[in-house]
Each structure stands twice: as C-alpha cells, then as structure tokens.
Write a sequence for this structure.
C-alpha cells in the first residue's frame, strides 16, 4: 500500500508515518491539499496529515478539506511529540548567531518565539510549507547564512548541524495526525502505543433555534458519552453559519452513538460520522518532558 503524507522527507508527519507504517511504501507531498488530491485520485491508498497541534490549535486546511472536499473516513489517529531544534549548514555553525534569516513552518516559528526573540532578535523569519522544507532550503543554499527550525530527523536527512536543541517555548507540545483511507488497515502496534478508540461526528445545527447546541450536548451527556473535543467551523455559506466537530471517546457501537444520531436528526440537525477509529501515541521515549 502507498501512504501519502505532508512532505518532504523528515517532516513530523514523516516521523509519525515511519512509526506506524514501517513496511509500507511512503510518498511525500509538498502540501496538505496535494496529499488529499492524491488520495482522491487513487495515487495512494492512505493519507496522513496533521489535524491539531497542542499549542497552535487546529490545522484549519485539513479540517476544511475533510469536511468540504474529501469523502473518505478517518481510520486512525497518531499523536506524536514535537521537538524543535535550530539548525544551520555546517559551514555556518560557528557563526550561527549571525544568521540572516530563519526558515520554518508558521506553527514552528510561533512555537519558538522566545528563542527567536532572545537569541536572534530582529532576524527576519520566512514561512515554508513544512519544517523539513526549511531544512532542505538551508542545505541547498549554504551561502545565504540561513537557519531552519525543524526536527532531528530533518537535520540528519539534509546534513545540517543542530546548534541549539529543544528551542520550543513550551515543553509539552504534541501534534495529532489523522489517517484517511477508503479501506480499513490492520495497524501494527510494535512501535506504537494503542490508547483507545474515538468517533468523530460532524453536526450542523438547525437555523435560528434557541438552545440547539445545548440539546446537542445533552444527547451525549445523558448517555454518559465523554467528549474529548468540540469545535466550531464556518460552513462557508454565509456569516453566522457554523458546523460542529465532536470527538467521542469510544468506538462506534450499535446502541449509544446510533441513538445520539437518531435523537439529533429528530431535532432537525444534520449528522455525519467522519470516522470511528483507534488512536495511538508514538515517540514518547524520545520526548524530553
């Protein structure tokens, strides 16, 4: 099976994919939309993309594609610790404080604000499509005196030297990645830690009904279903029109979750189950928390 992911090689998505799919063929894509397009075009059988970061929140483009563009279920979730390092070309390692520009993904730049403000104050920052893309640029342009914020795998992959480790502002930083596919996959648990099951539900409320959200939450509450996340996103049909994404901490069963769906539909809500899937946590043995 071919597994597509947000590339290039050595992104945090790549780390998650290597942990979960060590025997599958992997294909990097430069953007999240490219990854989804490849899945819809049958170029790959599975797609792994970031959904949420503990510090920066939801990756909106992933959620928007999941809701508006892609009609494939979520079949798995992977949580991976995020360790950010500052790296430069080996030719510039001794004078790294003279770095003229810092490249990285927008989330990584935001996560390392204190380091940038203290050690490289005033140095311009440029956004890239991924942290690995930043490392790749630094490798290919040694004369620019540029630095990259990326992970340890990126430093090894692109031959860069890490001059400062663990530069992120907050020690606990993790990212959730979702796996989408037409078909189920027998996940291997040798290198991954199985944590449980989730069911993700998309709910659109009836317009102009007072207390509709309260009724929705009550349908879960009286059944004692634990909600690990609830988030609203615009429907893109006009101001004030939103849908809700809710994560339920259980596998889809034959009674409770179907009962919720029936009750919400009776309230004129539109309900779609985006997936019921196992979730895993990988890489904790490398995490300095």
């Amino acid at each position: 099976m071919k597994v597509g992911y947000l590339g290039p090689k050595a992104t945090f998505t790549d780390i998650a994919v290597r942990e979960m799919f060590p025997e599958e063929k992997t294909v990097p894509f430069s953007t999240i939309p490219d990854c989804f397009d490849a899945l819809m075009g049958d170029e790959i059988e599975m797609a792994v993309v970031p959904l949420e970061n503990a510090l920066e929140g939801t990756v909106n483009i992933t959620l928007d594609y999941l809701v508006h563009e892609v009609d494939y279920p979520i079949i798995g979730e992977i949580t991976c610790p995020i360790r950010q390092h500052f790296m430069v070309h080996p030719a510039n390692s001794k004078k790294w404080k003279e770095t003229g520009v810092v490249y990285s993904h927008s989330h990584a730049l935001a996560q390392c604000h204190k380091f940038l403000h203290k050690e490289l104050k005033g140095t311009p920052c440029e956004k890239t499509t991924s942290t690995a893309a930043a490392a790749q640029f630094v490798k290919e342009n040694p004369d620019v005196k540029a630095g990259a914020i990326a992970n340890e795998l990126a430093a090894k992959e692109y031959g860069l030297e890490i001059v400062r480790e663990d530069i992120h502002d907050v020690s606990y930083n993790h990212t959730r990645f979702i796996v989408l596919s037409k078909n189920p996959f027998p996940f291997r648990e040798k290198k991954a830690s199985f944590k449980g099951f989730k069911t993700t539900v998309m709910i659109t409320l009836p317009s102009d009904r007072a207390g509709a959200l309260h009724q929705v939450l009550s349908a879960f509450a009286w059944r004692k279903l634990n909600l690990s996340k609830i988030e609203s996103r615009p429907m893109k049909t006009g101001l004030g029109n939103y849908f809700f994404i809710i994560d339920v901490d259980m596998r889809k069963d034959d009674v409770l979750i179907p009962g919720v769906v029936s009750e919400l539909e009776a309230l004129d809500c539109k309900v779609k189950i985006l997936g019921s899937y196992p979730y895993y946590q990988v890489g904790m043995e490398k995490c300095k928390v």
